[in-house]
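Subject: sequence -> structure tokens, single chain

Hey, anyone have a minute? Need the predicted structure for the following. Not urgent.
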Amino acid sequence: MRTLRITGEAALAFTDVSSDKWYAEEVALAHQAGIVSGVSAAAFAPNAAITRQEMAAMLVRGYEYALSKKLNAPIGSVSFVDTASAPEWAQAAIAKAADLGLITGRSKEQLAPGDNGSRAESAQMILNLLHLISE
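Reply:
Had a minute. Here:
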């Protein structure tokens, strides 16, 4: 949220995010902006690990929010052999994120969409997003 410079006020939609947590305002703003949706309508799971496919989805939504436009999914541009194992909602986000250069594979053939993302991968993806929206 700070990378996207989204500020303001938003109501917390998730019962498992306490308003006194340092991240509460960012979670509320991200939900309001449509960047995150939580694990259910009422739960965010703030202490859960995040997968690479979830990272891709949030990055694409953040990019679309920053540019105020929806991206079309690229056709045939993703060559990772394991992308088909991702849920359908994640496949389009992975294709868009890879096409934009927001996310790279763990190898040339493997994205590992269901694997947990690392802090280093998160930092690199956020940096990639920052470069794209700053252009």
